[in-house]
Design a protein that fits this description.
The complex is a heterodimer of chains A (473) and B (258).
Chain A (H helix, E strand, L loop, with lengths): L1 H11 L2 H19 L1 H17 L1 H32 L4 E9 L12 H5 L13 E11 L10 E7 L1 H4 L1 E2 L17 E2 L10 H16 L3 E4 L1 H7 L6 E6 L6 E9 L9 E4 H15 L12 E8 H13 L8 E5 H9 L3 H33 L1 H9 L4 H34 L19 H25 L3 H5 L4
Parallel strand pairs in A: 3-9, 6-8
Antiparallel strand pairs in A: 1-10, 1-11, 2-3, 2-7, 2-10, 4-5, 6-9, 7-8
Chain B lengths: L4 E14 L2 E14 L3 E5 L6 H8 L7 E6 L2 E2 L5 H11 E4 L11 H6 L9 H14 L15 H13 L5 E5 L7 H18 L2 E5 L3 H4 L4 E6 L2 E7 H4 L6 H6 L4 H7 L2
Helix pairs in contact in B: 4-5, 5-6
The chains are: A alpha+beta (473), B alpha/beta (258).
Bound molecules: adenosine-5'-triphosphate and magnesium ion.
Chain lengths: 473, 258
């Protein structure tokens, strides 16, 4: 019940959604009130489309393919836009080495950076934090193939997922039945209850036994390993270090399908052990903190934390920088700026124009073939506007149907079968087509059908009956 | 008692301009058609028969003159007004039937009814009545391609009468049919006239078809040149020569009318 309330409140949040719902309701009411007429019109349109099946099929396929391409391009742009969009509340900041890529900071930075370099009582402290250490290794040092190489995020498992439990280990829920949990990772706040439960159990296991790791489904499949199996990781960027590992779980399906995660203390301890054995520090000992994530409540807090960190004398060698996660990613994506610009402003419009032309061509041929029929309808008393609607409706029907089919098929096929669009940009393993595509697709189909058919429909509207039926000698 | 004229035409003029050239197709035409009359229109090709029919059916507007159908002056209506008016007042029968090939006989007849505020049940009743009247109750779900020419023309007639119009207008309705089918179509038109007292205007080149009408008008170069009435037709027999052998000047007829 309260779920519904929350949903309604969320829904009413955006005026666009409210307007959209009102329009949908209006269309629905019109459909119901005039249902007999609409049925007839729709039937007439369908039958006209069925008349030349080859042409209808070719036009539909063209629309289908083009909507598919636009959907894929938009998916990439949509995801990138979303991650680079500056949030004003509850934002994440990234601290990295200022002058060097990849960023390699000493681990002694971890503790003070997590506090936002706060010293005085009225300094701002981040509300949460997380450290990342990248550990790459191979299962077989003799054979460094793609299947054998795994990259781990070494971090504190509690920052991946921590759900609150009572003494008997049961999940604690709020009055409204929601599980109480915390995560610093992106896109993990939409998980189902059972996914949260499993991931939390896995993280608690990792705390008890540092050898345990969590790996994404696809990565596991490529490694040809299953949950429960053990292996030895021969580290590549941490020379001389070998880590025994046991796969304890998988990430929930989605963004982390290619990821792998281990306990950060495991790699730190391994370097300590190496130092004890060899009498000197491990070569990576002062370089094993790659990234620190901070969560801050708002932009003002971010500004102050960034200032505290960048002005602190404690982080001068190496120097660090603190930026919002979105601007960090945006700066990173800057390298792809021309490509993304071309996709957004050249490729997509070019496809839309092509689609409109294909539809315009098909519809104008069929209007030319049916001039006499249009004239007959007019003789029967159909008004010019109604003839226009019939032609326009035919095109819209085709466009919307092909667009919807295309969006649904791409979601089913690309997301579930192919595991997302493998577009090699930034650190995104794959782009998943958002459910929003279910309205992009039909909207694109409708838009191009409208643009493509408006001229032929107008010429059908203008058909002069007397001219069609008089034999001009 | 003389029935009230359902079509009143006075000083009707229609010209088309082709480039700089202006062609007068109908010249100063005056004509009354009483309600319930079956009138045939004959004349050589290009004499303006179709043009006249189109004007009466509200498919085109005259260059000048008055044109009253029912009690409405239709020469002054806009295209949209004419469209609305046509739905209720005119049923059109074409030489080449012009049924929509994708629709069944039933759906073709239903087409004009969709423009009227009728319930689905009323619509169905009217479609079935019209198809029954033309004797096609057993061909409801056939498409035009599955019907003979004569049957298609009967669907065309059902479509023309389904809205119960004031006037039925037919442009060479038997022009594309063999003589047997043509006879059947003419029988049907006569029946509509007798049974439903419909006013029918038919253009034809076929003297035998014209002979079924009560009155025949002859059009030449845009002018009504003579008319033959039922009384003239019968004594002369049924062949075409007889029809044209007793000419009466149009002006005389007009003068005779009260
Ligand atoms: N829309 C038009 N534009 C220009 N001229 C036209 C138009 N419609 C008809 N005409 C001309 O008007 C004249 C009469 O044409 P109409 O179709 O009325 O003849 P008709 O008597 O029906 O001939 P037919 O027996 O061959 O059907 C012809 O010379 C024709 O070329
Ligand atoms: Mg003609």
């Amino acid at each position: 019940m309260s779920n519904l309330d929350a949903w309604i409140l969320w829904y009413l949040d955006s005026p666009w959604r409210v307007i959209g719902a009102a329009v949908a309701l209006l269309v629905f009411l019109l459909l119901v009130v005039y249902r007999d007429d609409w049925f007839f019109y729709a039937r007439l349109m369908l039958k006209s489309l069925r008349r030349n099946l080859v042409r209808t099929a070719l036009t539909s396929i063209a629309t289908f393919v083009l909507v598919l391409v636009v959907t894929m391009v938009w998916t990439v742009l949509y995801v990138l836009d979303r991650v680079t969009a500056e949030k004003s509340q509850d934002l994440k900041a990234i601290v990295t080495e200022r002058w060097q890529i990849p960023s390699q900071m000493p681990f002694s930075y971890a503790q003070p950076l997590s506090e936002g370099a706060a010293k005085e009582t009225n300094d701002v402290r981040p509300s949460d934090s997380m450290t990342w250490t990248f550990v790459g290794g191979t299962l077989d040092p003799a054979k460094r193939t793609r299947e054998n190489i795994v990259f781990f995020f070494a971090m504190d498992p509690a920052k991946l997922m921590r759900a609150e439990r009572d003494e008997r280990g049961n999940l604690i829920r709020t009055k409204t039945g929601k599980i109480v949990f915390n995560t610093m990772m992106d896109d993990l706040d939409q998980l189902s209850d059972s996914e949260i439960d499993l991931l939390d159990q896995a993280c608690r296991e990792m705390e008890k036994d540092r050898r345990k790791v969590v790996i994404g489904k696809e990565r596991l499949a490529q490694m040809n390993k299953k949950v429960g199996e053990r292996f030895t990781l021969h580290c590549i960027n941490y020379p001389f270090i070998e880590l025994e590992m046991e796969i304890i779980g998988e990430f929930p399906d989605g963004r982390y399908n290619q990821s792998a995660l281990m306990h950060r203390d495991y790699i730190l301890d391994a370097m300590d052990a190496w130092k004890r054995k060899n009498g000197r520090p491990h070569p990576m000992a002062e370089k094993c903190l790659n990234l620190v994530w901070l969560r801050v409540p708002d932009r003002e807090a971010f500004r102050r934390v960034a200032e505290q960190i960048e002005e602190s004398p404690d982080f001068k060698s190496p120097a660090v920088k603190c930026e919002t996660a979105s601007s960090g990613i945006a700066a990173f994506l800057d390298a792809y700026r021309d490509l993304l610009w071309g996709m957004r402003y050249l490729l997509v419009p070019a496809i839309l124009v092509t689609m409109s032309l294909v539809i315009a061509n098909a519809i104008s041929i069929s209007v030319r073939e049916r001039r006499t029929e249009m004239a007959v309808l007019k003789v029967l008393g159909y008004r010019p506007g109604q003839v226009l609607i019939l032609v326009l409706g035919e095109a819209l029907l085709l466009g919307v149907a092909a667009g919807l089919a295309s969006a649904a098929a791409s979601i089913l096929f690309i997301n579930t079968y192919l595991g997302g669009i493998k577009f090699p940009i930034a650190f995104f393993p794959a782009f998943f087509i958002p459910l929003d595509a279910l309205w992009w697709g039909p909207a694109l189909g409708a838009l191009t059908a409208f643009v493509g058919s408006i001229l032929p429909a107008w010429s059908a509207r203008q058909v002069k009956v007397a001219e069609v039926f008089s034999k001009i000698s | 008692m003389i029935p009230r004229p359902i079509v009143q035409i006075e000083g009707l003029h229609k010209s088309f301009s082709r480039g700089s050239e202006k062609i007068d197709v109908l010249i100063d035409l005056t004509l009354d058609v009483p309600e319930g009359e079956f009138l045939a229109l004959m004349g050589p090709s290009g004499s303006g028969k179709t043009t006249l029919l189109n004007l009466i059916a509200g498919l085109d507007s005259p260059t000048s003159g008055t044109l009253i159908v029912g009690d409405q002056e239709i020469s002054r209506m806009s295209e949209t007004q004419l469209a609305r008016w046509r739905t209720r007042h005119v049923g059109f029968v074409f030489q080449f039937y012009h049924l929509l090939p994708v629709l069944t006989a039933y759906e073709n007849v239903e087409l004009p009814l969709l423009l009227l505020p009728l319930s689905a049940a009323e619509r169905k009743r009217q479609v079935l009545t019209a198809l029954d009247l033309v004797g096609l109750s057993n061909r409801l779900s056939h498409r035009p391609g599955q019907l003979s020419g004569g049957q298609q023309q009967r669907v065309g007639i059902a479509r023309a009468i389904v809205t119960d119009p004031t006037l039925i207008v037919a442009d060479e309705p038997t022009g594309d049919l063999d003589s047997k089918s043509a006879e059947e179509i003419l029988d049907l038109l006569v029946e509509l006239k007798k049974g439903l007292n419909k006013t029918i205007l038919m253009v034809t080149h076929d003297p035998r078809a014209a002979a079924r009408a009560e009155r025949v008008l002859h059009l030449e170069k845009g002018r009504l040149v003579r008319e033959t009435s039922l009384y003239d037709l019968h004594p002369g027999g049924l062949n075409g020569d007889a029809v044209t052998s007793s000419p009466r000047r149009m002006e005389d007829v007009v003068r005779e009318q009260p």
